[in-house]
Amino acid sequence: MSASDCTRVFEKLSEYLDRELPPSDCVSLERHIQGCGRCVEFVESVKQSVALIKDVDASENLGPMPEDVKADLRAAFERMAGEAKSKL
Ligand SMILES: [Zn+2]
Predict the structure, then answer these.
(1) In angstroms, what is the span from residue 2 Cα to ligand 1's centroid?
(2) Domains held by the chain: number
(3) pLDDT digit string (tens) for 6-53?
(4) pTM above 0.85, yes or no
(5) 57 CA to middle of ligand 1, Å?
(6) Which residue range forms the structural domain that includes residue 80?
C-alpha cells in the first residue's frame, strides 16, 4: 500500500462522510481503508469528531446540519488530514 493511496483517502474522506462521493469511489476508499492500519486510525478519529459535532447539533436542532456546523466539521477534518499527511 503506497503513501499516495493514503493521501487520496485523506482528501476524499470528508466527501465520503458527507455521502457526496460516487458509490464506485466509496468502494475503492473502503477497500483501501480495510487493508491499511494508518487509514483505519485516521477514519476512527474523524468519525469520533463527526459524532461529537453531530450530537451537539442533534440536541439543539433536529433539522439539517446548519452551515456553520458543517464548516466546523470541515475545518476539523482538514486539520486532521494535514496532521495525518505530515506523518506519512
Ligand atoms: Zn492508507
Answers:
(1) 7
(2) 1
(3) 888 888 887 877 778 899 998 998 899 899 998 888 888 877 877 776
(4) no
(5) 30
(6) 3-86
What is the DSSP-derived secondary structure letter of residue 1?
A: -
Q: Tell me the three cell numbers of residue 8.
A: 487520496
Q: How far apart are the first and last CA of the chain?
A: 12
Angle of CA points 8, 14, 16, to nearest 5°:
80
What one-letter code names the amino acid at 71?
A
Give the whole-angstrom CA distance, residue 35 versus residue 66: 34
Question: What separation in Å is there between the alpha carbon of 8 and the centre of ligand 1?
Answer: 8
Cell of 48: 469520533
Task: From residue 84, give the alpha-carbon distance in Å to each of 43, 60, 67.
Answer: 10, 32, 25
Question: Is pLDDT at 54 greater than 70 in this prediction?
Answer: no
